[in-house]
């Protein structure tokens, strides 16, 4: 494979997704699997299992040509690392919710302990020419820990969530230690220019570092920090939308709607996704447009997520009550305005649901990227496409400028956008869809992977960048 040459790729992430025969995997897993297969690489991560006492024993497996190496964690590890520091401390803070961020020394201790465990697991597997690619906020210190074990390999890090403004980040105890750890990598990637800009701002203002184009220097160490938006497998997703499973689902949904227009939302049940604001915006639409009652249904698919974390239990209870209240107020014996569904669907069925929806309503308060927005576009019928209403605060809004971009905090804007989308002429729908689909197809998941790994390959093992890789 051209980007990696003869080097093996080693990917390390919290979750590992093994290829299955029916290909039912997320886009990230598909993209990484392809690169791992072609480079005979390894994907390292948590097995998702809990063991009584940590053994460090590695479970090796090979499925469809992709090797995985996983470890089990102890209950205390999962509490302090995954539920604790990752999802009670970093996730809310990095999504600008310092009101929800909890800090406890135990969380930070558990986070570092688990990262040491991943470093111990990965270290013996690493060969000198391997390129190492660490994914996401669960694993920020891992690169530093691998360097401490003597690995001078090319190492990259990709952050899948936003990078917060400096004024918020400084509320984290030991914030500079966390940021300093990123300087162990050679290339650090973010989804958007905005997150990259905030990272550079922190390094310059808080740490006295300097920025020169993509190069960011702190003390003796210079790394590259780039914006590299993740995409989906657009062609494959468009095909999935006309598969038998998708068509069955499409028919089932359409039959149940009886000519009503469907608005669809698909999100993990997470406070960052703006579901409460979405329901309130839709309620505002119902209040302002009684003539539209019975013509419209909002289907919100929201599989529960991170249910051991209290803020997730709270948002779930809030949404249960809100959906009940809105339905109670507006329903009739033969019409329910919100279908609120707490189960997840596999890709093909989901693609059929997206295609059956006249409107995709994607309104996170803050989101690293949001792949659902791109999937909704890819699943549409080119001859009769639906309209995407997208929060300006999703990373995806930087690319999908032909969506109806809204401020998710404003119920009026949401109500107006729904009204506009319901009556949008076919010509305008087609024009907007074509422009968005061009972007989804061009900057797809392979583009993302290749752009990042090419940058990493251009770094020499001593950390210098080959001349031709320097940006103009
Ligand atoms: O693994 P979980 O705790 O169940 O969470 C699922 C994933 O959520 C986050 O996704 C992010 O990555 C997406 C792809 O780049 C991006 O589109 C989205 O905006 C992000 O929120 C998380 O960052 C992943 O690590 C989780 O696996
Ligand atoms: O019932 C569901 C709900 C969501 N997803 C997938 O979960 C991913 C969600 O990614 P996104 O970037 O939108 O948000 P995240 O959950 O990663 O924050 C998308 O690929 C969805 O298709 C799914 O397969 N089934």
From TrEMBL:
EC number: 2.4.1.15
Biological processes, Gene Ontology terms: trehalose biosynthetic process
UniProt keyword S-adenosyl-L-methionine present: no
Pfam families for this protein: Glyco_transf_20 (PF00982)
InterPro entries xref list: Glyco_trans_20, Trehalose_OtsA
Gene3D superfamilies per UniProt: Glycogen Phosphorylase B
Keywords, sorted A to Z: Glycosyltransferase, Transferase
Enzyme class: transferase
Chemical reaction(s) catalysed: D-glucose 6-phosphate + UDP-alpha-D-glucose = alpha,alpha-trehalose 6-phosphate + UDP + H(+)
Domain of life according to the entry: Bacteria
Functional pathway: Glycan biosynthesis; trehalose biosynthesis
Purpose of the protein: Probably involved in the osmoprotection via the biosynthesis of trehalose. Catalyzes the transfer of glucose from UDP-alpha-D-glucose (UDP-Glc) to D-glucose 6-phosphate (Glc-6-P) to form trehalose-6-phosphate. Acts with retention of the anomeric configuration of the UDP-sugar donor.
Quaternary structure and partners: Homotetramer.
Family from the record: Belongs to the glycosyltransferase 20 family.
Protein name per the record: Trehalose-6-phosphate synthase
Source species: Sphingobium fuliginis (strain ATCC 27551)
Gene name, Swiss-Prot/TrEMBL: otsA
């Amino acid at each position: 494979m051209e980007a990696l040459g003869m080097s093996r790729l080693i990917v390390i992430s919290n979750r590992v997704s093994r290829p299955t025969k029916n290909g039912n995997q997320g886009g990230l897993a598909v993209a990484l699997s392809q690169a791992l297969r072609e480079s005979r690489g390894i994907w390292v991560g948590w097995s998702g299992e809990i063991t009584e006492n940590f053994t460090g024993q590695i479970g090796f497996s090979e499925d469809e040509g992709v090797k995985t190496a996983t470890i089990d964690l102890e209950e205390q590890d999962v509490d302090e690392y995954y539920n604790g520091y990752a999802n009670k401390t970093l996730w809310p803070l990095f999504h600008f919710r310092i009101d929800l961020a909890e800090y406890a020394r135990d969380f930070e201790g558990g986070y570092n302990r688990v990262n040491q465990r991943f470093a111990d697991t990965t270290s013996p597997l690493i060969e000198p020419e391997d390129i190492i690619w660490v994914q996401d906020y669960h694993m920020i210190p891992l690169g530093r820990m691998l360097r401490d074990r003597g690995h001078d390999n090319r190492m990259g890090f990709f952050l899948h969530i936003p990078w917060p403004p400096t004024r918020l980040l400084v509320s984290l105890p030991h914030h500079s230690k966390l940021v300093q750890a990123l300087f162990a990598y050679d290339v650090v990637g973010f989804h958007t220019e905005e997150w990259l800009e905030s990272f550079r701002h922190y390094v310059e203002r808080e740490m006295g570092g300097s920025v020169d184009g993509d190069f960011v220097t702190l003390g003796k160490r210079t790394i590259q920090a780039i914006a590299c938006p993740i995409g989906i497998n657009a062609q494959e997703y468009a095909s999935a939308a006309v598969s038998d499973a998708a068509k069955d689902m499409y028919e089932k949904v359409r039959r149940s709607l009886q000519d009503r227009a469907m608005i669809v939302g698909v999100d993990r049940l997470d406070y960052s996704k703006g579901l409460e604001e979405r329901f309130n915006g839709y309620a505002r639409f119902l209040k302002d447009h009684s003539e539209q009652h019975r013509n419209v249904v909002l289907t919100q698919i929201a599989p529960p997520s991170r249910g051991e974390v209290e803020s997730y239990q709270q948002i779930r209870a809030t949404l249960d009550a809100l959906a009940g209240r809105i339905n109670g107020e507006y329903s009739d014996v033969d019409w329910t305005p919100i279908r609120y569904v707490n189960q997840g669907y596999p890709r093909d069925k989901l693609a059929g649901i997206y295609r059956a929806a006249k409107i995709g309503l994607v309104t996170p308060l803050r989101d690293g990227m949001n792949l659902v927005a791109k999937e909704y576009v890819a699943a549409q019928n080119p001859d009769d496409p639906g309209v995407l209403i997208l929060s300006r605060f999703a990373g995806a809004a930087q690319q999908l400028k032909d969506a109806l971009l809204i401020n998710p905090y404003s119920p009026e804007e949401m109500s107006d956008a729904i009204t506009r989308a319901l009556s949008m002429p076919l010509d305008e729908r087609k024009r907007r869809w074509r422009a968005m689909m061009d972007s989804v197809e061009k900057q797809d998941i392979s583009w993302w992977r290749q752009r990042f790994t090419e940058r990493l390959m251009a770094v020499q093992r001593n950390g210098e960048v080959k001349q031709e890789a320097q940006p103009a």
